[in-house]
Design brief:
alpha+beta; Muramoyl-pentapeptide Carboxypeptidase, domain 1; 38% helix
Length: 516
């Protein structure tokens, strides 16, 4: 046994090398005096069979059963349970070790994810684990009365995660049922009442997805009700304006293969596994592709995030530590140089009209007139910088929420409401604009009774900048999921605006061939 552990390789495994778990495997057996964990009287234990069943069904959890020898366990069990045959000591040992290794791989993947998020998101910290997988396996799984229930303890503790698991199982079945036919393209938009040759396929697809009731009547050649209403529901679920028109974007979503949707769901599960599993208070969660913020039991709200490719909002976890009412805006130098100096060149009174002051070191000077050529040159060279005074027109609105992070990203209000009316809302320079900052401030400060809704409102419309320290900092998770499942079970998909799916999917799939 210890010889196999020392070699870090077991030839009977689908993926023979286990040197990445060598220490844990050795610890697992040494702490039990090198006895077998999954075999009694030369037969697999009930818990061995139970965990094998879970390994074989790993695809249902958004993982890959072949990573855990899923296809091989049937024959392994049969070889140990063949009538009138006694397995050799070597066979029993290799069976036991194979199950330990595969179970450990499964537990770690279920808990931490298949890939390291820091490969793609440098600001993301992987949660440390106070108990190793060997301890968990030995103390919680081997003696478990209910193995499946015991394994729930390693999964992310979010209801949204469990809803995604159910969606994975559903879309596995949908992908098997769908014939994959593509809807015929049209040079012009298809409008209600138009004749369209793709109506039969559109009807079958929307019934399969649940957007159209089974047996709903529709003319096979005309695009009419109830098909139009079903398309509107489909559009809402895919981040599109629900106008009922069949245009380029709607056709693109309709023609996305269901196995691609399944991959989106798996990646969404993977990213939930990256998040901390333990936190002292309900977290604030921002899902970038969904352009939405969730805060405990408060109503969710729209957000505006960073512009794709130029000013992407990073993925990270932090703590919300302070709320600032009527904040000034210290203009980032990149915005000053790339945007504002050009505005000043076109309109010398720009700073005065928009409430900016020029900062020289720690000294501020109001812009009382046109910006001189000397000051403009110093602004262009970055020797002076700009700050916008608090007020209704301040770019941060009337509230800012601070959460320490390497990218200096924060949540804030905004004087502009236009962005929240767009279906695609990657419009900022990286920070996150919230639709209802006053409501978020009330939720954040709900455990500090002196901050009543009336006092919050007074601070927002007052004359002074007021900074409030959060008594118990609140976890904030900025995540990226192109698939979510609402509380009512509705499955929603969103565009991969930052191309994270495209980048991370390759690593996710590759991990199945070359496990860590």
């Amino acid at each position: 046994m210890l010889g196999i552990v020392a070699a870090g390789r077991l030839e009977t495994l689908q993926w023979p090398r286990f040197d990445d778990h060598q220490t844990e495997i050795g610890e697992f057996y040494r702490t039990a005096g090198c006895t077998l964990a999954w075999v009694r009287k030369s037969r697999p234990t009930a818990n061995a069979r139970a965990i094998i069943k879970l390994l074989q069904a790993a695809d249902d959890e958004g993982l890959f059963a072949k990573d855990y020898d899923g296809p091989l366990w049937k024959d392994r069990l049969a070889s140990l349970e063949f009538p009138n045959r006694h397995a050799s000591e070597s066979e029993l040992l290799r069976f036991d070790m194979a199950l330990t290794i595969c179970a450990m791989r499964y537990i770690l993947d279920l808990h931490m994810g298949r890939i390291n998020p820091r490969l793609f998101h440098s600001a993301f910290d992987v949660e440390p684990h106070s108990r190793g997988p060997a301890d968990f396996l030995r103390e919680r799984i081997v003696p478990a009365v209910d193995v499946a229930a015991a394994l729930r303890a390693v999964e992310p503790p979010f209801p949204a995660y469990r809803r995604l698991v159910k969606a994975v199982q559903r879309y596995q079945e949908l992908a098997r049922q769908d014939d994959g036919e593509r809807l015929p393209a049209s040079r012009t938009w298809i409008r209600p009442g138009d004749r369209y040759s793709g109506v039969p396929r559109l009807t079958r697809l929307l019934i399969l997805l649940g957007d159209l009731p089974p047996g709903a009547a529709s003319d096979k050649g005309l695009y009419t009700e109830p098909l139009v209403s079903a398309v509107k529901r489909f559009q809402r679920r895919h981040g599109l304006a629900p106008d009922g028109l069949l245009g380029e974007q709607t056709f693109r979503q309709l023609n996305t293969p269901l196995d691609r949707r399944l991959r989106q769901l798996r990646l969404a599960l993977e990213r939930w596994r990256w998040l901390p599993h333990r936190f002292p208070r309900p977290p604030i969660i921002v899902n970038i592709p969904e352009f939405r913020l969730y805060a405990g039991d408060a109503p969710s709200q729209k957000v505006v995030v960073g512009i794709a490719f130029d000013h992407e909002t990073p993925v990270f976890a932090s703590l919300l530590t302070n709320v600032v009412f009527r904040p000034p805006w210290d203009v980032p130098m990149s915005i000053q140089l790339q945007d504002l100096v050009q505005e000043i060149e076109k309109e010398p009174f720009y700073l005065k009209e928009h409430g900016f002051e020029v900062i020289d070191g720690e000294v501020a000077s109001d812009s009382v007139g046109a910006v001189s050529a000397v000051v403009l040159k110093q602004l262009q060279e970055g020797r002076l910088h700009l700050r916008q005074k608090p007020g209704l027109n301040n770019a941060l609105g009337l509230v800012k929420f601070l959460m320490p992070n390497a990218e200096s990203v924060y949540l804030h209000g905004t004087p502009s409401r236009q962005g929240f009316r767009e279906s695609r809302r990657d419009l900022s320079h990286g920070c996150i604009r919230v639709e209802y900052p006053e409501a978020l401030a009330a939720w954040v400060l709900r455990d500090q009774p002196e901050w009543t809704p009336q006092r919050i409102r007074a601070a927002m419309v007052g004359t002074q900048t007021v900074a409030v320290k959060i008594a118990k900092p609140i976890p904030v998770f900025i995540q990226y999921g192109t698939a979510v499942v609402a509380e009512d079970g509705e499955v929603r998909f969103f565009d991969d605006i930052y191309s994270h799916d495209a980048e991370e999917e390759a690593a996710f799939e590759q991990r199945a061939r070359n496990p860590r």
